Amino acid sequence: MNPHTSIASADAASGAKTMLMVETRSPWESGDAADFLLIVRALLDAGEQVQLFLIQNGVFWLQQERQQLLQLCSQFDGRLALCADDMSLEMRGMSHQDAAHPARICAIDALVASMAQPNVKTIWHS
Q1: How far apart are CA 18 and CA 79, in angstroms?
Q2: What domain range is 48 assigned to?
Q3: What is the C-alpha to C-alpha distance for residues 12 and 30, in angstroms, rounded to an integer?
Q4: Inside any domain, residue 69
Q5: Cis peptide before 102, with omega less than 30 degrees from 0?
Q6: Is residue 90 in some structural domain?
Q7: Which of 3, 5, 1 is CA-nearest to residue 113?
Q8: Per-residue pLDDT, 87
Q9: In this model, does residue 92 exceed pLDDT 80?
Q10: Residue 17 contacts by C-beta under 8 Å, 6 or more apart in sequence?
Q11: What pTM value is reported for the model?
């Protein structure tokens, strides 16, 4: 899949509402970073389609809380899309290959394109 393609384009075609959750903080950076993941889980439990986009220090979730992310992706397969910003990974010395499971590696323009979709509601945590 093209890393520049909107991460919500498939949902836009069907008209389904998608919650785009953008995490910029690492798990240890702030206590409310963990709370943000609880909100993601609550949305999924309520039946929502969720795109979780990890950017800036948020990509550290792929190292620190990998098992929790894998569990969420497995439990809510098809309703949770996990993406990581390619530049944020590179700036932090993280391998795209290591991050690729469970996350899809995306360019920032894919995030911007998703935010512009009429069926997407964005919550940006910073």
Answers
A1: 9
A2: 9-125
A3: 33
A4: yes
A5: yes
A6: yes
A7: 5
A8: 96
A9: yes
A10: 11, 48, 49, 119, 120, 121
A11: 0.87
Amino acid symbol at 121 = K
Rounded distance between C-alpha atoms, residue 25 and residue 30, angstroms = 7
Domain assignment present for 81: yes
105 with 89: CB under 8 angstroms? Answer: yes
- The share of the chain scoring above pLDDT 70, in percent, equals 88
Answer yes or no: are the C-beta atoms of 40 and 73 closer than 8 Å: no
37 is a domain residue = yes
Tokens of 95: 């391998």
* Residue 105 DSSP SS3: strand
Give 2's pLDDT tier (boundaries 50, 70, 90).
Answer: low
In the sheet that 120-125 helps form, which strands lie side by side, from edge to edge? 104-106, 80-85, 49-54, 18-23, 120-125
Rounded mean pLDDT of the chain?
A: 88
In total, the chain counts a number of residues equal to 126
Structure token digits, residue 13: 């075609």
Total domains present in the chain? 1
Residue 18 backbone dihedrals phi, psi, to 5 degrees? -125, 135
